[in-house]
């Protein structure tokens, strides 16, 4: 019986299948010396990101953080870090991006997001002047359209949604005690408003006719009422504006105003700094003692 010639790739198996001999690995064989050298060198280790920096308090906010930063500059505070969100913030540079949040490990987190909604809604007089009842026994101004409370509350809540979302992001990432700081109260001095807005009004063609102070104060109080209720529902603490910075009517006192309709100055920031440190201290953060002042700070 004729025999089948051996297959060029190996020896013939008794049943006719070809069997390849497995000899020592060589450079000519796939996975030979190359595989050995890879095993010898080992797999390169992945570079681990640096450990987050521990900080007692991390504040994330928008333009209202400027007053706090000015107060901190005067006293050289190093127990608080500030991440300021601006229109230019994006990607890894955005203070609320996980890449940015991951650089710090705070004991306490503070939100100063938003805050100017009350001015957006009511600083300038509306084409149809309005008022509303914040409390059942409020006095409303004559000759003005009365907006239902529920409608005012809905309009304000809608304007505050972005601030709510950002505060939620901050609290959810760190899972540490978190508080939201209220914005400064409105300014009741019309001369201050006109002076601070004159250049911008001329540039933009605005008419400097302002909503009466009593209405603007109620809008601000409505904003804080909504904020406080939202914070309570989300287990976030609410820090109101410092009472020392308010005049007898509840408006931002002259010595604490910045030269604009909205923000506090460095002296106002010093009061907020004390509030934040007191909150941090009550939640175990190693912070400096309260009592920082900013006498003589620029307006």
Explain the layout of strands and helices:
Layout: E1 11-12, E2 18-19, H1 33-41, E3 53-61, H2 65-75, E4 80-84, H3 98-101, E5 104-112, H4 117-122, E6 130-132, E7 145-147, H5 149-159, H6 161-174, E8 178-181, H7 190-204, H8 213-233, E9 237-239, H9 266-282
Parallel strand pairs: 3-4, 3-5, 5-8, 6-7, 8-9
Antiparallel strand pairs: 1-2
Describe the structure.
The chain is α/β, with parallel strands linked by helices and 299 residues long. The longest helix has 21 residues, at 213-233. It has a single domain, classed as 3-Layer(aba) Sandwich (Rossmann fold). The strands form three sheets. A five-stranded parallel β-sheet has the order 4-3-5-8-9. Strands 1-2 form a two-stranded antiparallel sheet. A two-stranded parallel ribbon has the order 6-7. A hairpin with a 5-residue loop joins strand 1 (11-12) and strand 2. The termini are far apart. Mean pLDDT is 84; it is low at 1-23 and 292-299. It has helices at 33-41, 65-75, 98-101, 117-122, 149-159, 161-174, 190-204, 213-233, 266-282; strands at residues 11-12, 18-19, 53-61, 80-84, 104-112, 130-132, 145-147, 178-181, 237-239. The radius of gyration is 32 Å and the shape is globular.
């Amino acid at each position: 019986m004729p025999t089948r010639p051996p297959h060029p790739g190996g020896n013939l198996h008794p049943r006719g299948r070809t069997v390849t001999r497995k000899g020592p690995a060589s450079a000519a064989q796939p996975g030979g010396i190359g595989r050995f050298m890879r095993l010898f060198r080992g797999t390169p280790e992945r570079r681990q990101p640096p450990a987050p920096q521990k900080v007692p308090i991390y504040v994330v906010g928008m333009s209202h953080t400027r007053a706090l930063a000015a107060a901190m500059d005067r006293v050289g505070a190093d127990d608080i870090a500030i991440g300021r969100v601006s229109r230019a913030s994006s990607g890894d540079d955005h203070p609320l991006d996980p890449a940015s949040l991951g650089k710090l490990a705070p004991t306490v987190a503070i939100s100063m997001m938003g805050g100017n909604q009350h001015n957006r809604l009511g600083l300038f007089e509306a084409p149809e002047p309005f008022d509303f009842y914040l409390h059942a026994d409020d006095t409303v101004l004559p000759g003005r359209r009365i907006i239902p409370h529920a409608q005012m509350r809905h309009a304000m809540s809608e304007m505050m949604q972005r601030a709510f979302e950002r505060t939620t992001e901050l609290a959810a990432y760190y899972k540490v005690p978190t508080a939201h700081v209220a914005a400064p109260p409105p300014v009741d001095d019309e001369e201050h408003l006109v002076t601070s807005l004159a250049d911008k009004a001329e540039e933009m063609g605005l008419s400097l006719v302002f909503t009466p102070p009593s209405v603007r104060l109620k809008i601000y109080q409505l904003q804080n009422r909504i904020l406080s209720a939202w914070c309570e529902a989300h287990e976030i603490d609410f820090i109101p504006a410092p009472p020392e910075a308010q005049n007898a009517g509840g408006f931002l006192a002259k010595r604490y105003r910045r030269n604009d309709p909205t923000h506090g100055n460095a002296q106002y920031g010093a009061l907020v700094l004390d509030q934040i440190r007191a909150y941090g201290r009550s939640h175990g953060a190693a912070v400096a003692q309260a009592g920082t002042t900013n006498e003589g700070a620029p307006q």
